[in-house]
Amino acid sequence: MIIGILKEPIDEARVALLPEAVKTLISWKVSVWVENNAGSSAYASDELYKEAGAEIHQRAEILQQSDLLLGIQAIAEDEIAKMKPSGVLMGQLNALFNPELTNYLVKEKRTAFSMELVPRTTRAQAMDVLSSMATVSGYKAVLMAADLLPRFFPMFMTAAGSITPSRVLILGAGVAGLQAIATARRLGASVFAFDVRQAAKEEVLSLGAKFVDVEGATEDKGAGGYAVEQSAEYLQKQKDTIHEHAMKADVIITTAQIPGRKAPQLVEERTVRAMKPGSVIIDLAASSGGNCALSQPDQTVEVNGVRIVGVGNLAANMPQDASKMYGKNYLNFLKLIIKDGNLNLNFEDDIVAGTCVCHDGKPVNSRIVQMLNN
Ligand code: NAD
């Protein structure tokens, strides 16, 4: 069986598997073909892949010969068409939000797996690329803010006077938010955090941050630990509370998302205008509508001296460890579908079925089925 690894598009510095992960894969009695220069942006040379036991090939050969094609970003339809009919496509295909591609895969009777669909269950935790990449984004967002801020993060007592610690407000205390809290605390900032889920409060406090309470949030125990949409009345109350905290903050990092929906708007224009000049907002939800009214995806906007950075794929800014984590998640998933050096797709397994976009001309993941029926 041949497993192919393609070079990602120009704006994607990560690679699906680094050489160390390739070495593990090869010990499972499979061949790994890597596109030339696939790992160069993550500082993994073709030589290192060869030392790990991989073969270096041209893209066209990999597309045509692979039994399993591993990537991060989705490849284009004309490239999918070049794969052999039984070839399985795997990546972060964003299948729920890309109906065109999903319909194409179903119509062409392709077998495809989309890593963002990995169920968020305890057993699947080691395969959860969303958590891994959110860890990278939360960490990097704080470093980016610290770099832009015209002040120190920690408190300093120096001969030139004392410096008070910066005040950081984190909105959304999920995986990215908790990592942002931990990173900002390590840098010595005074951290406040807010989430609609009461379960997040304990985690926020355990990281040494203060929890901003806004009573009256709607929670749904059936939502798998995720947030649900809030009432207009609650959202207004929340915006007012955030407004009060934002005026005292030096940095705001927003991470609030609701799966399958537009991100909630938490920071209004009046709030940005009320903030101290020099403050920085990093909006990690910019690509799904933004938590800040003024943020623009992949752009930095400045209003009254407040810089609002709308970040998209922040994980690609730290390609080495992001690829390492991605590869580990992949290996843990591949353990479920590779037996004795061959593909063995057991759709009775909830993780295999939950991650599968389509097989044999039919959608498999229940949310994909629902999306295509609507
Ligand atoms: P996410 O990226 O969907 O959202 C980020 C955070 O934003 C969440 O904590 C959410 O509650 C919060 N949020 C949403 N709307 C908000 C609003 N109006 N105001 C303030 N905050 C708001 O979520 P995530 O970080 O991927 O994960 C959230 C939760 O999912 C985790 O804390 C955990 O309970 C669960 N989870 C489980 C697993 C697993 O078991 N494998 C893995 C990852 C996450």
UniProtKB/TrEMBL annotation:
Catalytic activity: NAD(+) + NADPH + H(+)(in) = NADH + NADP(+) + H(+)(out)
PANTHER family reported for this sequence: NAD(P) TRANSHYDROGENASE, PROTON-TRANSLOCATING NAD(P)(+) TRANSHYDROGENASE
EC number(s) stated in the UniProt entry for this protein: 7.1.1.1
Pfam families: AlaDh_PNT_C, AlaDh_PNT_N
Protein's GO biological process: NADPH regeneration
Keyword Glycosyltransferase part of the UniProt annotation: no
UniProt-recorded name of the protein: NAD(P) transhydrogenase subunit alpha part 1
GO MF term set: NADP binding; oxidoreductase activity; proton-translocating NAD(P)+ transhydrogenase activity
GO CC entries: plasma membrane
Alanine dehydrogenase/pyridine nucleotide transhydrogenase NAD(H)-binding domain ranges (all copies): 146-310
Gene3D superfamilies attached to this UniProt entry: NAD(P)-binding Rossmann-like Domain
